[in-house]
Amino acid sequence: MMDLIFKPRLAAPALFGAALAASLLAGAAPAAAEDCKPHAIDLGEGKSVQGGCAPLKIAFLSAATNNLYLQAGIKGAKDAAEKYGVTVDVFDANWDPATQFNQAQNAITGGQYNAILAEMNDGNQACAILSKDAMEKNVLVAVANGPLCGKASEEGEALWTSGTLTFIGGSQGRAAFRDWILDIAKTNPGKQKVAVITGPDLNANTINTDLAIEDVKKQFPEFEIVGVARTDYSVLQGNQKILPLLQANPDLTILVSNYSDMTRGAIAAVKQAGMGGKLKIYDYGGNGWAFEALKADQITATRMLTPYTEMYKGVEALAKAWKGEDVPRFTPLETAEVTKDNLATSKSEF
């Protein structure tokens, strides 16, 4: 039986012990010594780490833990850990790249972990430590959601970084956000005034949303972006950051939010501004709340994310490679649009 144990975060000097230590202890018995075959795990470009008989202990560097998306990812990691008989400890960075960098450093040098599942707030800052330093300490790294080393706007296998095992994602990549916002523009021809809500600076999703906005401006000049609000992905900031934009632009026609919790807060702001029923609201996330909002005609459409699958596959990839199985460099995740037309046949992961 495996339990997720949350411990409080401490001050910076004790970041490693401050980890949201979620010990997902395996019920499976360790392999017999005669069945154990140490082997090199290929990380590309002639790089490798040694896999073998030691129990696999994974440090899951989570971007944060304060929303349902992230919690679904933790659940996915937990379930995969149980299936494959490994240990996973979850570290809460609370959206702080510096905190997360220190957590990565401690996981690599502390000697307690031989693998990392990385969901980084700043993939550029973490580039060398996860693709080079970890390998030198024989720590196997799988990256999910946000790529490393300036690859946020790449597509397909180019999202993977040599020195790491694999990248799992794409549903929040360059192509996904570009196609989403371009589709909104195509569906709404003519003059539009649009506000956009995104996450924090440096986050890969924010970078790709910004790039998508630039694509739209080139192809659909009448799709006018009048403001972009940055948030921490919370309901509260979705409300606080969008309300001034609504008040300054009473003729706004479209609201675009790249995460459902922010959308939820924005809908409250729309009501506060007396603009209910006047806006088309497009959501990216597709959580349980978004499904209910569709039923109630509060939003026009949502795009589904798959956080449970993302982190399940991250732990699965590490476990398989540790056992000597081949793992693809890139595991793509798809996102589907949900409207009232296909709501009944769709299922949210969080």
TrEMBL record:
Any GO CC annotation of this UniProt entry: cell envelope
Any matching Pfam family: Peripla_BP_4
Residues annotated as signal peptide: 1-33
Keyword Transmembrane helix belongs to the record: no
Annotated ranges, domain Periplasmic binding protein: 58-325
Location of the protein in the cell: Cell envelope
Broad class of the protein's primary localization: other
InterPro entries from the UniProt entry: Peripla_BP_I (IPR028082), SBP_2_dom (IPR025997)
Domain of life: Bacteria
UniProt keyword annotations, A-Z: Signal
GO molecular function: carbohydrate binding
Family: Belongs to the bacterial solute-binding protein 2 family.
PANTHER family the UniProt entry points to: D-ALLOSE-BINDING PERIPLASMIC PROTEIN-RELATED
Protein name (Swiss-Prot/TrEMBL): Ribose transport system substrate-binding protein
Source organism (scientific name): Kaistia hirudinis
